[in-house]
Amino acid sequence: MNPRAFSTLGCPGADLDEVVRLARTGPCSGVELRCFADQLVHPESDQAEADRIAGALRRAGLAVPVLASYVQVAADGPDVVEQLARHIALAARLGAGQVRVFGGGAGLPKGRRERAVRHLAAAAPLAAAAGVGIALETHDEFLTGAEVAEVLEAVGSPAVGAVWDAVNPWRAGESPEHTAELLGPWLRHVQLKDVASPTDLRPVLPGRGALPLGDVLGQLRGLGYDGWISLEWERAWYPEAAPLAEALPAFHRVLDAA
């Protein structure tokens, strides 16, 4: 059985005790920590605070598979690699396996892929030295497995892989089979969710929406993927969505039935 986690995106405002309580409502052994202002961890978190959080989660028997950063590796700023280095150091302090990054670069499409490759290649040795991976998510300007795989092939580092957000390639018209084929060599983390339709991204309890979750999970089995599967319940963006405590049992039922 794949280890299971959930993202703190689903419980905005929750303190550490609440996060631990949510994990104990089902077979979750990890927490994907959103790294953003006013969250449990943020880009300026100091070492003492990171150690406190890491210790509390460890005592609760919870791993941190991913530090979910908002670094955009295709941005054209001078400090992208510096941002990556800060997040890598924080992830290492937390014991996180991966730093999730986005592609970005929406405002400057010319050279976007080349910037992403350059920044990821520069940060890869830092990640390898820290024992932390960097994982580019199927998201924003790099929505599909094809777009992410093209970047990762050019980087060519085992320290840099992919996060498969199951909704995004599918809503862009890429089948789960094709996404799995493209991302298989690079796959480090999987985020599951369910939505009303490819054009209506309101959260729906897993198994009750339009996303072919069974197909996604079947493809993961075919790959022999034994890594983390995380529920990314987007209540931070859709406050009208059901509480995470209601979404987690549905998530577990989908995985149990696969």
From TrEMBL:
GO MF term set: isomerase activity
Keywords assigned: Isomerase
Domain spans labelled Xylose isomerase-like TIM barrel: 23-248
Record keyword Secreted present: no
Record-linked PANTHER family: BLR5974 PROTEIN, HYDROXYPYRUVATE ISOMERASE
Pfam families: AP_endonuc_2
UniProt superkingdom: Bacteria
The protein, known as: Sugar phosphate isomerase/epimerase
Coiled coil: none
UniProt keyword annotation of Manganese present: no
